[in-house]
Amino acid sequence: MCSITDRLQRLLIRLEAELRRLELWAERPPSPTALQSSAPFCCDRMGLECWLQWVFLPRMRRLLDRGGSLPARCGIAPMAELYFQQRGIAVRDLIAVLRELDGVIEAGGGLRTPVPQSNHLTK
User: Fold this and answer.
1) Which residue segment(s) compose the domain that 12 sits in?
2) Residue 94 CB burial class (10 angstroms; 0-12, 13-18, ≥19)
3) Tens-digit pLDDT profile for residues 42-89
């Protein structure tokens, strides 16, 4: 049986792969100003695909690497459906990955992920 951490790591890999397949992956990061947004999904300063790449993926990877607590709620898929529909971009597989991510995160809501063995200090 897979742990929530394992499932999330695999989903993050799938998310990145899907963003790349759809050619929504950027080679250059957004400006520091764009990253300082306090709006949900940084929607006032960048597109959702940019937020997924430069904010969500790094935060989730850090959380898993450091054994942080999962958020109690995650609602990225509904936002993505609306965002990409308004732009006329077909992203069915991307939405499927985001729905699965939402479900796994919410199922483990508040759960503290274990620190990977390689990160434990030894005496």
Assistant:
1) 4-111
2) buried
3) 787 889 999 999 999 999 999 999 888 888 888 999 999 999 999 999
Please, which pLDDT band fits residue 122 given cuts at 50, 70 and 90?
very low
How far apart are the C-alpha atoms of 93 and 99, rounded to whole Å? Answer: 10
HSE (side-chain half, CA atoms, 13 Å) at 103: 8
The answer to whether position 122 is within a domain reads no
Please give the angle made by the CA atoms of 90, 10 and 66, to the nearest 5 degrees: 120
- What is the per-residue pLDDT for 119? 46
Is 65 inside a domain boundary? yes
Read off the CATH number of the domain in which 57 is found.
Answer: 1.20.1440.40
Helix (H) or strand (E) run with residue 51 in it: helix 48-51
pTM (2 d.p.): 0.84
